[in-house]
Amino acid sequence: MIATVYLLLATLTLGAPIPHVPLAPHAVTLRIAVVGDTGEGSDRVANGIAKLHARTPLDAVIITGDAFYPCGPSSAADPQWNRVRALSRIGVPIFPVLGNHDFCGKSQPSAQIGATVVPHWQFPARQYVIDSNLTELLMLDTTPYATARNDDAADALRQSFAGKKTTPWRIAAGHHPIVSSGYHGHFPRDQHVRMVTLDPLMRHANVDLYICGHDHHLELIDANPRLLISGAGSDPVPPLVPHKHTLYPSEASARLGFATVELDALSMTIRFFDGDGKAISKPFVFKR
Which of 22, 26, 149, 183 counts the highest number of beta carbons within 10 A? Predict the structure, then answer.
């Protein structure tokens, strides 16, 4: 009987299909704001995103982890949830991934999964896919992978992106960077080395863009896949040494802000904004 129960649990967890969440763009272009590491309080950057949304409507907000400091919420009643209410008031779906701060203290990562505490919070599982007619966007839980506790992130990549592309773009998002000009692009060394092993899997899967946070700055690196770091949501820290293929920024600065990813059938456009919603970079346009 016990063996049967364990077999059932293994079937339900290890081989469970990755849930898919539909996201329909409001127009021919899909526009997503990307912000991360908002745990010190997201009100200012949320207001900046709201101002941008009023000018040019967004379809969703992605949080690249660590929406709560010092540790994630322990239950639906945890007052920590107030930290993301300003983002929820923007009125578009919020798609988070877990960050390392969601695994410390008394936090329960499971408290965020399927939560209905704040409006528009869409977090069906630790790893899930956002589906639109323009992109397959795989949301990854990278903390257990970076710390070598399991290989679920790599398995999710292989499972979700096993076949040929069915949309113009294929994107992955997680908390930890693969390459970055910030501290976490180098240290802790074992975590950096571990994350780099995802790089060939993403290339094999024809991933066009990897989105992350963890480092508290804004950066775009021209690599394969291209790398977008957006972790300046509440406590910005300047990058250490610019990567040789960094497109933005041209100089190190500690600036609060966020990024946008805009997709249509033929192009992907990435741009950076400060905490007040003002553009601080040119549009970086990449053709298929």
Answer: 183
